[in-house]
Specification:
Layout lengths: L2 E6 L5 H15 L5 E6 L2 H9 L5 E8 L3 E2 L1 H9 L4 E9 L3 E3 L10 E4 L1 H6 L1 H7 L4 E4 L3 H7 L6 E5 L1 H6 L4 E3 L9 E8 L9 E7 L9 H8 L5 E8 L7 E8 L4 H11 L5 E12 L2 H5 L2
Parallel strand pairs: 1-2, 1-3, 5-15, 7-8, 7-9
Antiparallel strand pairs: 3-4, 3-11, 5-11, 6-9, 6-10, 12-14, 12-15, 13-14
Length: 288
């Protein structure tokens, strides 16, 4: 039986590209064949695996330019049965697509909010008067502009090829080393192994030193934190959840000790998984 994998669709999104790369990796490992299942929003992708519609989901969690995809952290806290199995780092290249012959005269640009944000400076400098219109995905943006010669979309070169859309301008992302972390999620519990652990916690009181004590748990053992981020609890203004990524390059016993002590200083502690990180290269994407 094939493994079903949810991702943000339709065909041509960066999430689908990441899922195809993961699918290829599964095949190289001799795993069972997989079936890709596109969903119209990231939220629906997460709920698909949480409610058993699919066995896995591939979702974007953080971009090097625009930071965290907030809905992922919020949903992972609420749907805490979901566990991170692996991470895939995908280089992201954005292009301006349109049936128009040149960017001059464009009135609207459609794309996913993350893509619009990752090209913000380019848009301000080159198309300062256009209206920016968010869509559920970069590929959905192409459907919006199919018959409108005054509109353009920001999508990947791969999407341009798949949908036979002319590229007006290539590589319009503000930073050349633009990349996105994708997590592979499923309901299967994971052990604390790999190169990284992701967790979240809340604290009982918003008083001086409340956050210092949990962080000292790692600092005194020489454990590196590669990311720390706060999100509102949604219970009360000024209350926050904290999300941390731990680099596993210390002795394993130190990690176990740190997590045990961390429970003393937290109200709720949730470990989302230990996992390995794989980085794709542009040449790998071109072959998908």
């Amino acid at each position: 039986m094939a493994i079903s994998i949810a991702h943000l669709g339709p065909t041509g999104t960066n999430a689908e590209t990441a899922t195809l790369a993961y699918q290829r990796w599964l095949e190289q490992q001799g795993e069972t064949k997989s079936l890709l299942c596109p969903y119209p929003t990231i939220a629906q992708t997460l709920y698909a695996v949480a409610y058993g519609e699919t066995q896995q989901a591939v979702v974007p969690v953080e971009n090097s330019t625009e930071g965290t995809v907030a809905i992922i952290l919020d949903s992972l806290w609420q749907l805490d049965k979901l566990k991170i199995q692996q991470e895939l780092v995908l280089p992201i290249s954005h292009a301006l697509l349109s049936r128009r012959k040149s960017p001059k005269g464009l009135r609207k640009v459609y794309s996913h909010p993350q893509a619009l944000a990752q090209c913000q400076h380019w848009l301000e400098q080159n198309l300062p008067s256009v209206s920016l219109i968010p869509t559920n995905s970069t590929t959905e943006a192409l459907h919006q502009i199919a018959l409108d010669l005054t509109s353009a979309a920001i999508a990947s070169p791969r999407a341009a090829k798949l949908y036979n859309f002319p590229i007006l301008v290539n590589d319009i992302n503000d930073y050349p080393d633009n990349c996105t972390r994708f997590w592979i999620l499923e309901l299967t519990p994971t052990s604390i192994e790999g190169s990284r652990i992701s967790l979240g916690f809340s604290v009982s009181n918003n008083v001086p030193g409340t956050l210092v004590k949990p962080l000292e748990v790692f600092a005194k053992r020489g454990i590196n934190l590669s990311r720390i981020e706060s999100r509102p609890t949604k219970r009360s203004l000024g209350e926050y959840l904290f999300f941390i990524d731990i680099e596993i390059d210390s002795e394993f016993n130190f990690i176990e000790e740190a997590l045990a002590e961390l429970r003393i200083y937290t109200e709720t502690l949730k470990i989302f998984g230990g996992y390995r990180v794989f980085s794709l290269k542009t040449i790998d994407i071109a072959q998908l």
